[in-house]
Amino acid sequence: MATEPTRTTGKGGRGKARRAVVRVRGKTVRERLRDLVEHPATGWGVTIGLAFTLLVTTLAVWSRSHPLVAPGHVMDRTRTVRVKFSTFDETETERIREAERQRTPRVYVRDRAAFEDIRTSLTNLPASLAGAATLDEVDRGIRERFGLSEEELAALRAVTDDPGGSTAWQASVTTLMDILGRRPILDGRTYQAATQEGLNEQIELRGDADPERVAKRAAINADDAVQLGAETERIVHIAGFTAPVDGVVVGRLTRGVRPTFQFDADQTREAQDAAASRVTPVRREYAVGQRIFDRGDVLDESQLALHRRELAEFADQAPRWRLWTQRIALFGTVGGMTAILGGYLITFNRRIARRSARMGWIAGLVGGALTLACAVTVTDPRFAMLAVPGSVVLVAVLMRIAYDRRTAAVIGMTTAVLVCIALDRSMGMFALCLAGIAAACGALGEVRDRREIIRMSLGTAAVLAVGAALVGLIDRPLSPAAVAAARDQTLAEGMLAGLGGLVVGGVTLFVLPFVERVFDITTGLTLIELRDPKQPLLREMQQRAPGTYNHSLNVASIAEAAAEAIGADSLLTYVGCLYHDIGKINKPEYFIENQRRGVNRHDKLSPAMSLLVIVGHVKDGVEMAREHGVPHPIIHFIEAHHGTTLVEFFYRRAQEQAKDTDESGKPRDAEPERLPDEVDYRYPGPKPQTKEVAITMLADAVESATRTLAEPTPSRIDALVRHLAQARLADGQFDECDLTLREVRTICDSISKTVASIYHGRIKYASDEPKRETPAPASTAERSA
After folding, report:
1. Whose CA is closest to 555, among 700, 339, 450?
2. Is the dihedral of CA 302, 306, 307, 312 positive or negative?
3. Whole-number Å distance between alpha carbons of 632 and 351
4. What is the pLDDT of residue 221?
5. Which residue, of 240, 257, 275, is where some domain finishes?
6. C-alpha span between 265 and 261 (Å, rounded)
7. What span, in angstroms and rounded, lies between the C-alpha atoms of 685 and 708?
8. Do strands 220-221 and 185-186 pair parallel, antiparallel, or not at all (unpaired)?
9. Which of 144, 270, 405, 504 is the most buried (most CB within 10 A)?
10. Pair 151, 135: CB distance under 8 Å
């Protein structure tokens, strides 16, 4: 039972008050501190706290050593160089290298097949036509290929007849091929690329001989008939061909033309890379105080690279004392926040503080959320608005499901502080996290269905989306040059923050069973499933112990109303009452609610044996519940609904049997050592640890005792309820739960009203008189009464 804090003072000498001793729940502060230090969970708590502090500090140091900004974002602060260093200017170097690539001539490779086709056809043409007297005797393909006329045929025959003419023809062909080796004929697209791409006015031609560079304008476009005709005529004349045979050569080069050179991308790339590799890297000197970027700048890649380099140089060059001072300060700050959180849990949530495993799981949950937020932000800072608020709100939501709103808010706020410290975030981000925590914890009540979590995630997503946009407008400077980037960034961050709220809901639904098992809790969603009469244990109870099942239903109704009256968990109370007597399934006939009239199996058993059967239903029930995977909070109803109360009936019977009789047959007092020990006739416990189980204990006793009342009038029921409650108070059954005397009084009032409504009075009709041998049929109203 909870007691009020008291302050005791003593008087001594001239009425001076002696030093006051503050007492809390019956113990002085010094005694409580001693108990805390000596408690086994304290050592584990300190160990968990130190490990958690070290983890968060390591995350903070690691995260701050990376640039936590993204290119294209508007900067909300100015960064300057902290140590002098020189570094290669990768951006400028790459710009020069790219310029060298562009100045490198593009490579074109000779098409040997095309060249040989032209050379062979022109070299053999006079000999091929030597025997043709007229144009009709020339093959049609040759006529079309060369565009032959009678005049040109005669001129070619003259070349064959004249030995000097044949030599001159061959020399002209050789000259022509040499010229074509320097005047490449290209297809239309290749010609366009050759004349437009690159900064160099030359192209490189590669064939059998050494590479040769020629001007871009030397190339000939095979798809431009006008240019092709004009250029080939000029080339033919330069090669030494005269009229009328020059027309034959021009016709050969322009009819069915085939490109003589092809672009070689691989060789061009090799040449460009070779030229870029010869560029000497540009080095720049940076002085202390030189700005990396200003507040309001739209961050570009060069600034990001410089920022990353400055962080690395600072880590290498800065004095060790400066680095370790920062790390120690981080360790102290994180340790202080951890100590504050631990003190809060010890003071206001002993349920967590008493069990080191719960402290470890909470530390692991918060540490995991911090790790996730830091990893995502360092990997890609553009997603910080998704990871940071989402991780913090997820912690708050899971704590809200496991514990109360106040505990969830405190742990969530602590997580928000730590993640902002680790990622060097502004107060705007902290305020956004607080808004998300408030929205989630406020919207999330008792989780009785999935829609509750869905509604929470939708509301939280809306709050985070609007909050992220507002924080962006507050923190982000809107310079004229950065308006467009700031607008896009604000919209993107709002969408990411809203998405984070939706992700929180999805993750919560996914991990809910794991959270229930780890934190030893049972959500309303699971409780609703457990209260289904089709559950295996409840169905078995209906079939094998129907009286116990009806008793459990009555107890559940009575206890549920009492739990609502004091603000306890009514759903948990109802479900716990349904399962509190499942141990009776094994031996239902030994419990009076399942016995037939006049048959009592305990009449043939000794009190000690009956005691084992009666007390055994608690142990049997716990074992059955564990086999069927019933959550631990429900198991506590089974093991503690009798606490350590006395099995009074069999204890009295054992006392009676232990007494002897004298010669006249009259009983006489037995020797003390022969009387049964009261301790042996008590339930093994434990006592109720929660208000809900304490209510169940009282409701169970009242429901059973009320059945023995001859006339269960409201006044008699109320007197019975208060007598049983007082007896359990005096027996210390409520000492280990948080019930107050005011709550006990409220519970008694509620139970009295509920039980009186169950055993309500009934109007006595004339048909109920014993003297009427043949009563008239009852009306519908009478039957319902």
Report:
1. 700
2. positive
3. 14
4. 92
5. 275
6. 13
7. 25
8. parallel
9. 504
10. no
- Residue 205 has what DSSP assignment? E
Same domain (yes/no): 241, 386 = no
Q: Is the peptide bond before 607 cis (omega within 30 degrees of 0)?
A: no
What residue type is 165 in one-letter code? G
Q: What amino acid occupies position 765?
A: Y
Name the percent of the chain lying above pLDDT 90: 50
Q: Are residues 56 and 109 in the same domain?
A: no
Is the same domain home to 152 and 226? yes
Strand partners, 667: 661
Helix, strand, coil shares of the chain, percent, nearest 5, are 65, 5, 25
List pLDDT tens digits, range 340-378: 999 898 888 877 877 888 889 999 999 999 999 999 999
Given a cut of 70, whether residue 713 has pLDDT beyond it is: yes
> What's the rounded Cα separation, in Å, for the pair 32 and 38?
10
pLDDT one-digit tens code per residue, 109-138: 999 998 999 899 888 888 888 777 788 888
Q: Are residues 723 and 606 in the same domain?
A: yes
Tokens found for residue 28: 């002085």
Q: Which residue has 């092709």 as its token pair?
A: 228
Total residue count of the chain as it appears in this document: 785
**In the β-sheet with 27-28, what is the strand arrangement from edge to edge?**
6-8, 21-24, 27-28
Query: Alpha helix (H) ranges present in 17-106?
Result: 29-38, 40-64, 90-103
Nearest to 512 by CA among 589, 468, 566, 447: 447
Residues 269, 194 within the same domain: yes
Which pLDDT band, with edges at 50, 70 and 90, does 34 fall under?
Answer: low
Report the distance separating Cα 574 and Cα 560, nearest Å.
5
**pTM (2 d.p.):** 0.69
Q: What residues make up the domain containing 237?
A: 101-275
Q: Do 179 and 231 form a contact (C-beta atoms < 8 A)?
A: no
Structure tokens at 261: 């050179």
752 phi, psi to nearest 5 deg = -60, -45
CA 258 → CA 110, 114, 143, 206, distances in Å?
12, 7, 18, 18
Residue 504 buriedness (CB in 10 A; 0-12 / 13-18 / 19+): buried
The three-class DSSP label of residue 184 is coil
Beta bridge partners of 285: 86
Contact 682, 645 (CB under 8 A): yes
- Please report how the helices 427-443 and 450-475 are oriented relative to each other, as an axis angle in degrees rounded to 10: 160
pLDDT of residue 15: 41
- Asked if the structure places residue 375 within a domain, the reply is yes
Token pair 């043709």 is found at 132
Same domain flag for 326 and 267 = no
- The answer to whether residues 108 and 58 belong to one domain is no
Count of domains in the chain?
Answer: 3
Same domain, 396 and 345: yes
User: Could you say which of 243, 275, 307 is where a domain stops?
Assistant: 275
